[in-house]
Amino acid sequence: MSPFSFPQLVAQPVANSPDSSATPLAPPTAEAVKFVPAHLKLTGEDAGLDCPSCNAATQLAEAGEFLVVACPQCFGFFSQSRNFNSIIEGVRKRYRGIESVQPLDAAQLRVARTCPACQNRFETHAYAGPGTTVVDSCANCRTVWLDGGELERIERAPGRR
After folding, report:
1. Could you read off the pLDDT of 34-79 as tens digits, one per residue?
2. Which sequence spans correspond to the domains of the chain?
3. How would you list the strands of the sheet with 66-70, edge to edge?
4. Pairing of strands 134-138, 143-146
């Protein structure tokens, strides 16, 4: 059972195909992701979708009080758009470590990925809140995808808690 109500698209052309300016980017390596993030609790239950970052099978997971779809390989995750801000608020309120700011990786803005649920191209944009990171969103499915480590960047950013 998926936490999302993804529309079933039957015999429809793929909308918003990637353009030639998009740059493919390799998923994070095992060395880049050194630990299972504390904000994700994997359930082990197959979510039925492939990770848009590393193509691994995803699992249902808990992020705070919300059910999300997460990748056990690269630790990226999908959230319903309506829950995204609450997840961020929760991790920022609980964080008690050292605040840090990392520069935005502009190459991430050129990454072309497709939503594994509907096959539309993700909208890729800089996150407008605290933390210099890039988020991918699907307007069709009303979901947000964060790569592994991106929620931690938002969590550690200076600013209101």
Report:
1. 456 888 999 999 999 999 999 999 999 999 999 999 999 999 999 9
2. 41-156
3. 41-50, 57-63, 66-70, 77-80, 143-146, 134-138, 123-126
4. antiparallel
Q: What is the pTM of this model?
A: 0.76
**Which of 70, 34, 29 lies closest to 52 in space, CA to CA?**
70
Q: What percentage of the chain has pLDDT greater than the value 70?
A: 78
Least confident of 22-31, 102-111, 150-159: 22-31
Please tell me the predicted confidence (pLDDT) of residue 7.
Answer: 37
State how far the Cα of 57 lies from the Cα of 37, in Å rounded to an integer.
18
- Mean pLDDT score, 82-96: 95
Tell me the three-class secondary structure of the chain, residue by residue: CCCCCCCCCCCCCCCCCCCCCCCCCCCCCCCCCCCCCCCCEEEEEEEEEECCCCCCEEEEEEECCEEEEECCCCCCEEEEHHHHHHHHHHHHHHCCCCCCCCCCCHHHHHCCCECCCCCCECEEEECCCCCCCEEEEECCCCEEEECCCHHHHHHHCCCCC
Per the CB < 8 A criterion, the answer to whether 119 and 14 are in contact is yes
